[in-house]
Automatic annotation (TrEMBL):
Family matches, as Pfam families: Radical_SAM
Classification lineage: Bacteria, Bacillati, Bacillota, Tissierellia, Tissierellales
Radical SAM core domain span: 48-270
Required co-factors: [4Fe-4S] cluster; [2Fe-2S] cluster
Tagged with keyword S-adenosyl-L-methionine: yes
Protein name: [FeFe] hydrogenase H-cluster radical SAM maturase HydE
Annotated gene: hydE
Domain of life of the source: Bacteria
InterPro entries: Aldolase_TIM (IPR013785), BATS_dom (IPR010722), Elp3/MiaA/NifB-like_rSAM (IPR006638), FeFe-hyd_HydE_rSAM (IPR024021), HydE/PylB-like (IPR034422), rSAM (IPR007197), rSAM_sf (IPR058240)
Amino acid sequence: MIQEIFRKVDEGRGLERDDIRYLLENRESVEEAVFEKARAITDLHFHKKIYVRGLIEFTNHCHNNCYYCGIRRDNDEVERYRITPEELESAVAVGAEAGFQTFVLQGGEDAYFTDERLADWVRRIKKIQPSCAITLSVGERSMESYARLKEAGADRFLLRHETYDPAHYKKLHPKEMDQQKRMKCLKDLKALGYQVGSGFMVGSPYQTIENLVEDFMFLQEFQPAMIGIGPYVRHHATPFRDFENGSVELTAMCIAILRLLFPTANIPSTTAMQTLAEDGRNRGILAGANVFMPNLSPPRVRKSYALYDNKAAFALEAAENLRDLKEQIAELGYEIVMSRGDFTGRENYN
Ligand code: SAM
């Protein structure tokens, strides 16, 4: 079965539900071969290079109330913040000085950030580092809003679909949140020419193997430029406080399957992996991830962007942090590169 799956991958034919289910259900016996195959594909396209993106968590205000998330509206334990334009500029300057060519602005859904304000921030970043790419991860907005932000200079957008199954989506979110709306946002972003990222949590409450199979099927249809996944990690002040964390092993397997399906997509090894395992970041890379996102947020706010408990951070405060990162990644046999690392499209698949 595994050889047949790899043949389909080599022929760029995509995988069927049964193939994906087989990989997930037989993880322990097939993972070594799958990781090896995923790494071979990653190496072919990325030549052992790991792209870095400077992550700026600019607001933890959020009008949404997702049951899993530590910055949900009803969590009144969290100290709310917005960074200032000056803090934004100094974070970008630190990153630019280190050579970063991509900045990711991520935050809760915060009405304070009107199109005008966000567009101004996008322009401020481009002024400091004109050659950079800007990724927004600011949740659901109207198509007009996405268009304005694109016009201001945003290049990419991350919006995880979280789960493709509407019934599962309902279990993770209060009823005012609508999975169809999120799907429309993804389509709008793509139509506007953004490099779009989607993704899901692995091991989120009530998730079944079948849910994951459908997530992979949806992604094959949607063809994202980037895919961000990570294990679900509990937060003590959410309605899901009593659910188990997701598994690092299953997440690594999902990363590897993504790489089989999307040879040239940008796939990060995410903070949640590092939170649940000391070597989580490396395990993501060894499963086929090609992106890492150091945290450039101002130190005063870092603890407050707590989506889940004990969130790990690789923070870039000084040049030596980048040097350390480069050394750690070199030990693994990879090389940190500072280029923009744009998605090169599907044409390079085989
Ligand atoms: N508000 C934006 C959005 O909805 O896309 C961006 C911020 S949101 C906090 C970023 C991602 O964090 C979500 O897409 C979700 O998958 C992830 N996340 C939130 N809570 C989490 C948890 N407890 N464990 C793991 N990931 C979590």
